[in-house]
Every structure is written in structure tokens, then in C-alpha cells.
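INFO worker-7 received task bundle
INFO bundle size: 2
INFO processing item 0
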Amino acid sequence: MRWQCGTRFRGLRPAVAPWTALLALGLPGWVLAVSATAAAVVPEQHASVAGQHPLDWLLTDRGPFHRAQEYADFMERYRQDLQDLELKYLLQKQDSRIEVHSIFISNDMRLGSWFDPSWRKRMLLTLKSNKYKPGLVHVMLALSLQICLTKNSTLEPVMAIYVNPFGGSHSESWFMPVNEGSFPDWERTNVDAAAQCQNWTITLGNRWKTFFETVHVYLRSRIKSLDDSSNETIYYEPLEMTDPSKNLGYMKINTLQVFGYSLPFDPDAIRDLILQLDYPYTQGSQDSALLQLIELRDRVNQLSPPGKVRLDLFSCLLRHRLKLANNEVGRIQSSLRAFNSKLPNPVEYETGKLCS
């Protein structure tokens, strides 16, 4: 796929569209290979006016291959990503190749140090992509903590996780519904019986993978005990203990890691597409830009967290990674909806607001 370039960008002809890396999130490898092969063997003079290969539409959501059952099964089973069993194996080995290196921040505790877990502790992992990694967006596949308790401790860690997809304030994060519905639960693996250390891992896998920029972890503790009358496990809050002098033990967190991968991201190329909405370079380039932005919007929102309504992650991307104003984001979304309604078999869906 080639861009039609105006005088301002004469000579700049990228070989692929700026959203190709994000498009790969939803396409299996053989589809990308077929697309690349077709683009190589068809002469350039057969390209459409809008700069798109005439066969590209066959592989889109609106093409005929999309409705084939075999294609749908293949899309479900062989997405271009790590399979869940492969991911589980790499997590067991704590393979550093799938770790997304991030910055740990907390005013309440330090990694590797014992602390009193009676009160809530807040910690976070952040990437600060706008400062350190402006050319990447990041996908989370799993989150892992190594938690240690002192001997004979009856404490039970309880964690609340909030995920911020592309930056901004804490209010622009979504809550991870651990063990609700079909969402996965924490998996515990014993590491050192003497120190009572366990790896707590939640694996999102291909089904629940999502974008992330910052992960907020709120840690509190509850006391695990047995009810003598019913012989069932019950939990108390630490402040509810009748004997305040009773030693609750101490807790230590050795590691807090996010596993996933990073994707190339070119904000200038997306800004160039947005610029063509008002100032098209050639006849037809505006429609081409709108089609690419719609495809990008759908691919980004495809990784929305679970819920009755998808969250509008695309607006968060425009707001925080492209630094666009609210009115500009609203204008772009309105243009995309208006253009999409004119397409044959338009696909529209309701989204919830996440970023202000």
C-alpha cells in the first residue's frame, strides 16, 4: 500500500500504512502474507486512485472472506500472537523476552522490603511512553507479583488492579474485574516454602489482552480464619480484630512485572491522515484517509476491556499519544461516523467514554 504524496511530502513514500502494526493485532500471519504477496506481484499501475491495492478489501471485515466460517475459525484460533499455552509456559519460566520493562513507583513501600500490611498500599508500574518511548504502544498479556509472608501469618493479600491504556490521570483507568464472569482469576505458585513466597499471576491471554501505559495496584490484606461452628473459611479485616496486640505478621513484595509486547507507533503518520480530512493531497486521498482511520479505530477498540459497552480507547489514543484537544477528537469521531454510515454494510457499535 502506498500513499499519495503532495508537494509538502514529495519523495516520502512509506511502504506500508502507518497503522499496519496495529492492524496486525487482529490478522493471522497467513492473511498478512497473502496481502504482502499480492502487493508484490500486481503491477503498480493497477493500484486504485485512493492508493489502495484493489484486492485489499477482500481481507477486511467487510470483505467476503470475513463471513466464511473457516476464516472465522482461523481468526479465533490463530491470531498473530502468543497462544495461551505458550504464554503460560513462558510465564512459568519468567522469560524476560516477554517482560515489558517499566518503572515502579510507590510512596508506601519498597520492593524487597518487609512492611506492615494492615493498611492499604498503593503502587504502580508506568512506562512514560511520551517521554521515553514515543514510538511504541504496549499490550499487556499478564501481570505477576511475588508476595512473601512471615511464618504463621494468617494474612490474605487482596489486590485491586486499574489499567490506564495510553496515559493521563488515574480517573482515566478501568478496573480489572478479576474472577468476575469469564474473566480470569489469580493463579498462585509456591516459590519458597520456608519464606512462604508465592507468585501471583493473572493471565489475560489473547481473549482479554489490552493496551496499557500504567498499571495501578492497590494492596490490602484480610485475615484468613476458620469458623468453628460451620468449619468454613472466613475473612476479617485487620482492624476488626478483637485483640489488637495480636501479631498479624509482615508482608514483602519482591517483584511486580507486566508481561506482553510493544508495537511500533508513528504519531506523525496518524496526524498526516487527520490533516487530509481537511486538506486532501489528491482526489480520493480524503476517502483513503477516512478508511484507514476507521480501520485503526476499530482495531484499537477491539482491545477494549470486558463490559456491556466497549470503552472508546481510540479517543484515549488521540487525546494522550497525539496530544489532540477534546474538540478536535470529537470532530474526528464525528467525521468517521458520518463517513462510515455511507459505506455498504456499515459496522457501528456503541462505546463508553473513558478519557476526558
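INFO item 0 finished
INFO processing item 1
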Amino acid sequence: MKKTLQSITISRFLSAAALSLSLLLAGCQGNVSETVGDLLTNPFGSSDEEEEVINVVALTPQEVPWHIQATVAATVLRLKDEDPDAIDEKFSLVGSGGIATDENSSLAGFGVENVQINDFFRPQEAPEINRLGARLILVDPTGRRLGVSFVADYELAEDQVILKGHQWGYSRAETPAVETYIVRTAAIEELDEASVRDYQTFRSHILSNAAPTGDPTASADIADYTVVTFVMDRILDGDKFEVRLSAVKDGTEGFPDASRYILHDNGWVTGIVPGRFSLAGEKSFWVKAVYTPKEEEDGGFFGKLLTNERLIGLYNTANLSESAS
């Protein structure tokens, strides 16, 4: 991730001069639920045509076999670092302790937003094994999301799932969601370093101090403000994120040098841009959230010459839909 602060102090990230409350994109939609059976989508389609596909019909969530639901539930609960013995007992499993957890991130507060079954088949070389491939979307109460893809191998012994192997990894959001707010710089200076590093504390403080924008009678006087952009989806290693300021609405071009970045919980980036500017319409400018996913290894020579950066958020400091004339 680009320009992520390793050591954060209030005076440090507010000292840079900048060119210079609205939600850009919602962090999540729908209700958060732990009832995995009610969240399964797109079940039973194998991506490997050479494998023996057990079931390729489109089933409703209620028709998804119990052993698939149990395996998905065990994966979710182990990601949340819950006790494997309790998981085994609850879901008639053996071996959930073999599902790895992320020692660098706490996912205890996350719930299930969506489960997608991608593959379910018996490998030709091991016909006694059921191989399940799925993708999870997890979300926390603030709207932060993360994607997880996993593959599980298991056998069935009467009414038990016997896990034989399990691998998972974080998956990339195609278009990460962002939220942008403007606050008085003095409000951020009220926070100590520990409060800035704690996501819940920092976000709550920003939202409660967000300046109203879009007032046609807003003063043209210059004041000390800070632009704060939250990336609501987890950013993967090698991906880049920048907040750029621009007088022009179109494109991804802009001024990035004043932007500073905070890494929360080993995956969620927040952009900070302090400066002196007015919230009046005639003085407005654009805040651009620009995301560049990690370059594909097999992109080839010409692929490396082309940029794959994407504009994932666009915010006007006076809530205008077009640049002020």
C-alpha cells in the first residue's frame, strides 16, 4: 500500500500544507447475519470441467447440504478465532482446529454478508474427498468489508464432517468502497496517537465532527480543514491507494503530495489531507480516491506499460455535481 504511515503523530500528519459530509459509497448493503444457510448464493458450479461434478443444479439456500453449511460455518468462526472444540461439537465436525487464523488481524466483530459457492466436486485422484471452494464477504458494524476465498477437503463419516485439508486467503474487492468527510483540523488535533490508531475511536470522532457541506450561503473565508477518506474494503498487499486533490472533475489526475495515510487493523487504509480552504461553492475542488490493484504477474511487456489505476471515489468539497464556473 502506498505511503502508509509507520509512525503516526497528530503534529506530523497535520504539518504538511495542502491545496486546499457526505457519504460517497455505502460500505455495505443488507443485514449482517450469522445464519450461513440464508446467505448462500450461486451454489454448485465447478470451474474444472474435467472433474466429476456432484451437483450442478441451482439449489436454493435451504437445499444446500448440511455438510457444506457446516464447513462454511466452521471457516467463518475460525476466522473469528473462536474455539475449535466448540465449533466441532456444534457442527458435527472433526478437525476445525486445522483452519488457520490471522494472527495480525482481529475479525471477531465481523459477521457474514454473503457466501458464494464456487466449486464442489470429488477429485479423480481422491474420490472419497469432497472438495468445496467458496468466497465469503464479511462486514463489521461500521461497514468495513473483507473478502475471503477458501478451499476445504473433507470426508463424510455418517453424520460427521472430517476435515482433511483447508486453505484460505484474502480476496480483492474489484471496486473498493470509500467514504469521504471534511472536519475542522482542530477536531483531529484533540486526538492522541492511540486514538488515531484505534479505528473505532477515530472513525466515531470523525463522523461526530464532520462539517456540513453544500450550504449555498457558506462563507468564502479560509479555515483549517482536513479531508478524511475511509477505504471500507480491505486492501491487499501490493495494492496502492491515493487521495488526490484536483480542480478538474474528470480523470484520475490530481495533487497527491499533501496526503497522508493511516493503516488500521492491518488492512484498512484511511487517507488524511490537511489544509486551509473554504467550503464555499466558488472555492470548491475535487477529492479523488484512486485505487491501483497489484499488477498481474503475467501481464506481459505491454501490460506493464499500461496503468490500471481506477477512480473509486469522487467528492466535491461543496457537494457540487460539476466544477464551479
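INFO item 1 finished
INFO post-check item 1: The chain has seven helices and 14 strands.
INFO post-check item 1: The helical segments are 10-14, 66-79, 84-91, 185-189, 193-197, 199-208, 300-305.
INFO worker-7 idle
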